[in-house]
Amino acid sequence: MGGKADRTVARARALAKALRNGLLGAGVAPFNGYTYDHVFGTKVGGTIFDKDGFRHTAADLLSAGRPENLHVLIHASVQRILFDTQGGRPRAVGVLFKDENGDWHQAPLSSDGGGDVILSSGAIGSPQLLLLSGIGPRADLEKIGIPVVSENEFVGKGMADNPMNSIFIPSKRPIKQSLIQTVGITKFGAFIEASNGYSQSSKSIHCHHGIMSAEIGQLSTVPPKQRTLEMARTFAQTKADLPRETFQGGFILEKITGPLSTGELRLLSQDVETPPSVTFNYFSHPLDLRRCVYAVRTIEKIVHTGSFADLAADDEYPMEVLLNMSVRANVNFVPKHTNDTKSVEQFCRDTVITIWHYHGGCQVGKVVGKDYRVVGVDGLRVVDGSTFVSSPGTNPQATVMMIGRYVGVKILRERLGTEVEI
């Protein structure tokens, strides 16, 4: 067993090595080694992994805190933020939440007027809760019957996501799935990475489990209530018709950082459990589409370098075949244009998926100030990815955690009136 495992790990590393050499061969240079810095060229590393490959999470930050000061209600569902509007300028005084039994409760701030409600519900949850609480565009709030607490035309606007597309690289031998290790940072605004695919059994293919790793996510372009059984059956049949080789190997993906295409979040109901309407308008800005085309062409150069000769059967799968295979295998519900891979622009539109880099909706300078306090009200801050104007090209988790720590230290300084080390 040990010998087999060692060979599988070696093949997993082979894809990362092939990509590194392929990126350099395609001109994504220089090689910057292991680094946390986002610098042009090819590097090894990540924002939540150290040089020894160990992942660090929010638990590391919590372990340095004082657990006696933290009380977590794991089954509480916040419904809206409560405000005192009697004194002129609205002030957040607590939150209204519902427990696992459906009973309603209030969690008030201390009566001495100190402290803040800190909203950290993410790029979708935070703007949704602000709108439900009466902070947002007046016309949108009045349309759905929500009393206006503070008018702000920017809440829910500027929603964006780093779009991602992937190209399958069938390998001559199965490759063990592993985390992303090598990244190419281009000067045209795209990150190019590789992640090993599945070495799936025939049973897995028969069950239509798909070939996309959970790491790269799924984009449903059809609202859940509009999805049909026939749509699901068609999707499953597409997977069943794919060649066996596509379930063995890996994929090279590209994602656009700092997209200029933006959308918005709108409420559909006063009920917090009703998902809001969210649009990101992927590739609506022509520059984003051009970036995707450049990235796909760069991947084509990478695949044709000698680095992939021992790994992928590129003679059997020319680029046009790989693109068409990727279109057929893609996990979104966008109507596909198979056998039409001459248009890379169309390939980008057909195969776009999310990597969960949602951001916007409560942007700094529009919804919150530089201290992350919500504009127009007191006692309320937003601290999460909804405040980003742009999201990092790599995992945004570390950035979000550092913003939390940064704001926490600022709050301590305000309360203590002293310099607390950041």
TrEMBL record:
Where are the annotated coiled coils located? none
Show the InterPro entries listed in the entry.
FAD/NAD-bd_sf, GMC_Oxidoreductase-Related, GMC_OxRdtase, GMC_OxRdtase_N, GMC_OxRtase_C
Q: Give the residues the record marks as binding FAD.
A: 78, 356-357, 385, 396-397
Q: Which Pfam families match?
A: GMC_oxred_C, GMC_oxred_N
**Swiss-Prot/TrEMBL cofactor(s):** FAD
Disulfide bridge positions per record: 292-348
Record-annotated Glucose-methanol-choline oxidoreductase N-terminal domain positions: 122-136
**SUPFAM superfamilies in alphabetical order:** FAD-linked reductases, C-terminal domain, FAD/NAD(P)-binding domain
Question: Tell me, what is one Gene Ontology molecular-function annotation carried by this entry?
Answer: flavin adenine dinucleotide binding
Keyword terms, alphabetized: Disulfide bond, FAD, Flavoprotein, Signal
Q: Provide the family line.
A: Belongs to the GMC oxidoreductase family.
Q: What is this protein called?
A: Protein HOTHEAD
